[in-house]
Design brief:
Largest sheet: 5 strands, mixed
Helix content: 40-55%
Structural class: alpha/beta
Radius of gyration: 20 Å
Order of helices and strands: EEEHHEHEHEEEHHHHEHEH
Catalytic activity: L-threonylcarbamoyladenylate + adenosine(37) in tRNA = N(6)-L-threonylcarbamoyladenosine(37) in tRNA + AMP + H(+)
Subcellular location: Cytoplasm
Main location: cytoplasm
Binding site for Fe cation: 111, 115, 301
Number of strands: 10
Bound molecules: adenosine-5'-triphosphate, fe (iii) ion, magnesium ion
Keywords: Acyltransferase, Cytoplasm, Iron, Metal-binding, Transferase, tRNA processing
Shape: globular
Strand content: 15-25%
Length: 337
């Protein structure tokens, strides 16, 4: 089964062709990070204009690279939420137009399910499974009793993990998005500063990163007032330790209470080297659970992951009419059947 997929929920315009949900025939991604960097975040109007400029080129590139004719395709998968409405609309229009032109059915895909499904590019997820979904807009522990069934057992009460990296990055005048840069700085620094690991003792699986963010802001302002120079690498190490500690602590608790066959690490923050290392170590204590991190090149936004999740829907005969609309606030609970 060959599925062509469209992703445009944030600042990546992407089209991919994926066979049977796990073989990537092509994955064309155009990123617009450079256009947003000077604003320190995504500017929605700029984003949708970029998507319009790039979508046709990205589509042609995906078809050329895969050497696949449209008539050899079985369906069109598309992200319809969550994300920026103006950005989502461009991919949705592209997908519907392509589907109409080639007589193909449309598969609606949740962007977050896509992030998780990208684990299948590493090895097949076995069920029941759990996922830690950590991205720019989301931080969730998701229980999947079977394929394509999602139960959010814990989530952030304020900032997402990636958002906290990006906000600390802005404070330190690092280029947006700052996750990768802070990850690199953290390797060079020492954990000299004690920041709070939020909610470590509470009896649930939720996260909170705004207290940590405030602690970092206070630390920097305090140092500035006293005209002390900050060792940015040490700050990065100390901050990243606090984020990873919080993620590991909640994950450990969830794995103890929900025995699963696979544990998936997904979303843009899944690229974090310390998080990958520490989860690998944690999973050593759970020999019945296989650790399946999304391969590095598929952690950020891309259409291949939408093709992987699209295949889950395809197998369940979940298709959309051509009046499918965007759902910018889509979450997992809506997907439960
Ligand atoms: P969502 O998926 O929630 O809709 P999004 O699509 O904007 O949000 P992603 O593209 O999945 O988010 O992830 C981007 C985030 O990942 C950014 O916040 C970025 O800083 C973060 N990130 C990328 N690489 C790393 C890294 N090595 N360490 C930590 N964070 C990282
Ligand atoms: Fe994303
Ligand atoms: Mg992104």
């Amino acid at each position: 089964t060959k599925i062509i997929s469209f992703e445009s929920s944030a600042d990546e315009t992407s089209v991919a062709i994926v066979e049977d949900g796990n073989i990537v025939l092509s994955n064309s991604v155009a990123t617009q990070i450079n256009s947003h960097q000077r604003f320190g975040g995504i500017v929605p109007e700029v984003a949708s204009r970029h998507h319009i400029e790039w979508i046709t080129r990205v589509l042609n590139d995906a078809l050329d690279t895969a050497h696949v004719e449209p008539k050899a395709l079985d369906a069109v998968a598309v992200t319809y939420g969550p994300g920026l409405v103006g950005s989502l609309l461009v991919g949705l229009m592209g997908a519907k137009t392509f589907a109409l032109a080639h007589g193909l059915p449309v598969i609606p895909v949740n962007h977050l399910a896509g992030h998780i499904a990208a684990a299948n590019f590493n090895k097949p997820i076995k069920y029941p499974a759990m996922a830690l979904m950590v991205s720019g807009g989301h931080t969730e522990l998701v229980l999947m009793r079977e394929e394509n069934q999602f139960e959010v057992i814990g989530e952030t009460r304020d900032d997402a993990a990636g958002e906290s990296f990006d906000k600390v990055g802005r404070l330190l005048n690092l280029p947006y998005p700052a996750g990768k840069t802070i990850d690199e700085m953290a390797h060079r620094g020492q954990p000299t500063i004690k920041f709070p690991t939020a909610m470590a003792h509470e009896d649930n699986y939720d996260f909170s990163f705004s207290g940590l963010k405030s602690a970092v802001i206070n630390y920097v302002h305090h140092a500035n007032q006293k005209e002390e120079t900050i060792n940015q690498d040490d700050l990065a190490t100390s901050f990243q330790n606090a984020v990873v500690d919080a993620l590991i602590g909640r994950t450990k608790r969830a794995l103890e209470n929900f025995p699963v066959k696979s544990f998936v690490l997904a979303g843009g923050v899944a690229a974090n080297s310390q998080l990958r290392e520490e989860l690998t170590m944690l999973l050593n204590d759970f020999p019945k659970t296989e650790f399946i991190p999304v391969p590095m090149q598929y952690t950020g936004d891309n259409a291949a992951m939408i093709g992987a999740a699209g295949y889950w829907n395809y197998k369940k005969n979940i298709f959309a009419d051509l009046d499918l609309n965007t759902d910018p606030g889509l979450d997992f609970e809506l997907l439960q059947s």
